[in-house]
Write a structure and sequence with these properties.
Length: 727
């Protein structure tokens, strides 16, 4: 009885908690008793404590094998904060210099250090093996143990060499911990570590506070910015698969006044850990990261986790979404899904060993079927991890907004027959073309317009047929041969289905229901033709009145494309107005009030449903060039030199400057204009635009005389005019 009180007292003494969570106490007792122990506990369940407390209580030093330098630092800082001695916990990895490594070794040898964190890569170095051999080791803890399994979502070869190295260093109990493992992965981990007789502790995978949602990947940046603005001040993580996308998205968020930073393996470690610390210290709200971020990061109040790209496996998805709401509070998990992302991931697998491809293909298929399913997300997830949920959760998109399903037995048969007719030698896209009766180049060259299947599915579009193929694959009626360019093959189940067709409910997926026109800032209408013609006319009238009041030509206030975009987007606040093409913050503040008031009245009177995705300010690919131009003009560099440095013609440079000025940025190029035009000539062009009906350069040239002025002269003074009068 005394011991039980003592254990809780130790918990109180070291960590300040008065009771254990879930199965923590049983796990700790197993470790203290010297058993090999396998711990499967979802993120937020308190895995770290399961090895931290026994390490503090047992004789010797515990070796904690951990995959990430950032995670080690996080954990060591955390343990030191509970104790009085810094030497109680250390890490040994490539980020340390020689002096620091010596300090660690001295503390460990003197017996001060109870927990030594080691990266698997450092563990395999012979000098470290020799050093560890001379120590009294209490136990080995392998954190994020799913990295051992090639079925796991983050396969690391060094992890599979842990067992032989541990045997060489010296025998001690092994504790393996992970937040995500199917039965197959668990078996793989135990077998690899030689701990088949371990005590196994499994906590439930159900995190009832997490809300799961899959959204169609249509204008994801706009959707993300809108979501974050609606959840202002909350902490969140956004995962992308590529470093390039991480950088781009973080930049787009910052441009839209969101405190965001990037995190990926390509950054130097100081920047990376600095960005992580800023997130933990709440100096920034959002981290945009590759999957390397967040393993074991103990931030309890992450309120949302967004996947810009679908993860490679459900293990990865579960692990990453699990970083939301660790304190039991709100946690929104939103994932953007487009089937072409799955195809991209399939392409990455080409060239890998066949066994690895098989595994990867199966994991991707599970992920795609989860994304495309119409049933409760939580039921699918828990089932994947070998747990049963009795009834739908009521806290996911499929429960709250059930998807429409349509009986599609007939369509499935048509699709399967088409695959057979082309002798299983073509990809989904080509067979879709055949079904809808599209004479694409490939259909023509193979004379597939002569097939019976040609045009047999022209009652639906190509996206529909692609969805039919995907959902047939999920149900196991067909398979895709990745080695051979993704050719569609029939399975036994598919042949059986054709013999005895049965009901097949096809999910009316977002993927082919949404209109794909992109109303982004770059594609806003160029003239006044798109959008709401009545509102456009009203905005033009208002512009005329405002221009009169300021004694300026109307185009200085807002240009036609801006009015057209307003009539398409219906912005009803200055915050929304500044995201309209060619407006920006300055113009919104200076001229916007009456425009948004007019639009607001119009929307209310006509009961208009505004588009959900307000256009957000985009970071064009050329943004680096724009920043360079603005900075160079601030430093008063000659425009010819700027053009030369960027490798562009003077005409193109002037076009770039026009775009900058048209979106509301004030620019001063007087220093350059004064060099090429005297004051009188400048004044003449300036006065012309003050009274002009349009900002047309050819009209100006006709009026002012082509002998006296060049096109460039007029364009440069027009830039000065627009910048001074409009911005």
């Amino acid at each position: 009885m005394g011991r039980e009180i003592t254990l809780t007292e130790h918990l109180q003494k070291y960590f300040g908690f008065d009771r254990f969570k879930g199965q923590q106490e049983q796990v700790i007792r197993s470790v203290l008793d010297g058993n090999d122990t396998f711990v499967l506990m979802p993120t937020g369940g308190g895995k770290s404590l399961c090895y931290q407390l026994p390490a503090l209580l047992m004789e010797g030093t515990a070796i904690i094998i951990s995959p990430l330098i950032a995670l080690m630092k996080n954990q060591v800082d955390s343990i030191r904060s509970f104790g009085t001695e810094d030497g109680i916990a250390h890490f040994l990895n490539s980020s340390l210099n020689k002096a620091a490594i010596q300090q660690v070794k001295d503390d460990v040898t003197s017996g001060k250090t109870k927990l030594l964190y080691v990266a698997p890569e450092s563990l395999t170095k012979q000098e470290n093996v020799d050093f560890l051999k001379g120590l009294k080791i209490s136990f080995y803890a392998i954190d994020e143990a799913h990295c051992i399994s090639e079925w796991g979502h983050d396969f690391r070869p060094e992890y599979r060499r842990i067992r032989p190295i541990v045997s060489e260093i010296g025998k001690a109990p092994i504790v393996a911990l992970t937040a995500t493992a199917t039965a197959k992965v668990q078996h793989d981990i135990q077998k690899n570590l030689g701990m088949q007789d371990a005590q196994v502790f499994k906590a439930s995978f159900n995190r009832a506070n997490l809300y799961y949602e899959i959204r169609p990947k249509v204008k994801p940046e706009a959707q993300i910015i809108r979501f974050i603005k609606e959840n202002a001040g909350k902490s969140g993580i956004i995962y992308c698969l590529s470093r390039k996308k991480v950088e781009e998205l973080a930049e787009a968020l910052r441009v839209n006044d969101i405190k965001a930073l990037a995190y990926h393996a390509g950054m130097d470690s100081a920047t990376r850990s600095g960005n992580q610390d800023k997130f933990l210290m709440e100096e920034v709200d959002v981290i945009v990261a590759t999957i390397a971020f967040g393993m074991g990061i103990d931030k309890p109040d992450v309120r949302f986790v967004i996947h810009y790209d679908i993860p490679k496996s459900l293990e990865g998805y579960y692990q990453e979404t699990g970083r939301a709401g660790r304190d039991g509070g709100e946690g929104k998990c939103i994932t953007f899904y487009a089937h072409k992302d799955i195809q991209k991931l399939e392409k990455f697998m080409q060239g890998k060993p066949v066994a690895e491809q098989e595994i990867g293909r199966q994991l991707l298929l599970d992920t795609a079927s989860y994304a495309e399913s119409a049933i409760c997300r939580r039921i699918i997830l828990l089932n994947y991890f070998g747990e049963t949920l009795k009834e739908p959760c009521g806290n996911c998109d499929n429960c709250l907004n059930p998807k429409e399903q349509v009986e599609s037995k007939d369509e499935i048969c048509r699709a399967l027959n088409a695959i057979i007719e082309v002798k299983e030698k073509y990809k989904a896209e080509h067979i879709s073309d055949i079904l809808v009766g599209k004479k694409s180049a490939a259909v023509k060259s193979f004379k597939h317009y002569q097939l019976k299947a040609f045009g047999s599915g022209n009652d639906h579009g190509e996206k529909f047929w692609n969805a039919v193929f995907r959902q047939s694959m999920v149900k196991g009626l067909i398979s895709k041969d990745i080695e051979n360019y993704g050719l569609l093959k029939m399975t036994d189940a598919g042949h059986e289905f054709l013999k005895h067709p049965r009901d097949f409910m096809l999910v009316r997926n977002h993927d082919y229901d949404i209109r794909d026109e992109d109303i982004s800032a770059s594609g806003a209408p160029a003239g006044g033709s798109d959008g709401d013609p009545e509102l456009f006319a009203m905005l033009k009238d208002l512009r005329k009145q405002v221009a009169k009041r300021y004694n300026l030509p109307p185009f200085v206030i807002f240009q036609d494309p801006s009015l057209s975009d307003m009539s398409l987007q219906y912005p009803v606040s200055l915050e929304e107005l500044k995201f309209i093409q060619g407006v920006g913050e300055g113009k919104a503040k200076r001229y916007g009030k009456e425009f948004v008031e007019l639009i607001k009245r119009y929307v209310e009177e006509n009961d208009i449903e505004r588009p959900q995705d307000m256009v957000v300010r985009t970071v064009a690919n050329k943004s680096k060039m724009k920043v360079y131009i603005i900075q160079s003009i601030d430093r008063m560099l000659a425009l010819d030199d700027i053009a030369e440095a960027q490798g562009i013609e003077m005409k193109d440079l002037i076009s770039e400057i026009e775009v900058i000025v048209n979106s509301g940025t004030k620019i001063n190029i007087d220093y350059y204009i004064n060099d090429i035009l005297d004051e009188d000539h400048q004044e003449e062009i300036f006065d012309y635009f003050r009274n002009a009906k349009t900002d047309s350069i050819s009209d100006a040239l006709k009026e002012l005389g082509e002998d006296d002025y060049s096109e460039d002269d007029i364009r440069l003074v027009r830039i000065k005019f627009l910048s001074e009068m409009g911005n």
